[in-house]
Amino acid sequence: MLTLAFDTATRVATTALVRDGEVLGERVSRAVGVLADADDLLREAGARRGELTGLVVGTGPGSFTGLRLGFAAARGLAFALELPVAGVSTLHALAAGAPGALPVIDAGRREVFTLDGEEPVCAAPGALELEPGTVCVGDGALRYRELLETNGAEVPPDADERHLPRARFHAALAGDFGPADAVEPMYLRLPDAERKR
Predict the structure, then answer these.
(1) Residue ranges of domains in the chain, CATH in brackets
(2) pLDDT of residue 183
(3) How far is CA 159 from CA 63, 136, 137, 155, 162, in A?
């Protein structure tokens, strides 16, 4: 099985090409570069688009615009190449890349997206109830490092790879594949434009 996975929910997009659980290549860029990254990964692996058997897209939560870009890419590729799609939460992929850590994504508006058990939630970073020594990862952990550390959390250094929602973990967590339009983004709140209206 040759799977292309990508996540565009945060400021940094990741793309991975995975064959039967083996990562053939991975890229880190911006959401607008996901299709070019996918093409590069296929070329470097010596694979053709027709060999792909499935797509995995990060479902967020995260940036509204980033999610829209990722879903447009996933649906366009799925339609053009007649591929099934699976969705994986960006929070769960972050957690898979940092076992035992709490994923924290910057939600803007002085809020973060995180997990309460297995449930995604949106909260003020200061309202998170953290056990002393809880490791927090993600761009929200970086943005609110001082506040989280004051509340007893540990945040790895800025360059630590655990802060990225690596697409290889999306591929590993993917469950059932199906029609692209059956996979939906996870927003958790209204987009800014609707809120202002």
Answers:
(1) 2-90+165-196 (3.30.420.40), 91-162 (no CATH)
(2) 96
(3) 21, 14, 11, 11, 9
**Residue 132: both structure tokens together:** 């002393």
Spatial separation of the C-alpha atoms in residues 107 and 13, rounded to whole Å: 16
pTM of the model: 0.93
Please, are residues 160 and 12 in contact by the beta-carbon 8 Å criterion? no
pLDDT in tens, 163-189: 999 999 999 999 999 999 999 999 998
Q: Which of 37, 31, 44 is nearest to 185 (CA)?
A: 31
Summarize pLDDT for 13-37 with one digit per residue, the tens.
Answer: 999 999 999 999 999 999 889 999 9
* Closest C-alpha among 183, 196, 60 to residue 121: 60
Q: How far apart are CA 39 and CA 20, in angstroms?
A: 19
Q: Helices in 53-182 by DSSP H: which ranges?
A: 64-81, 90-97, 139-143, 145-150, 167-173
Give the count of beta carbons closer than 10 Å to the beta carbon of residue 12.
16
Question: DSSP alpha helices (H): ranges in 21-103?
Answer: 34-45, 64-81, 90-97
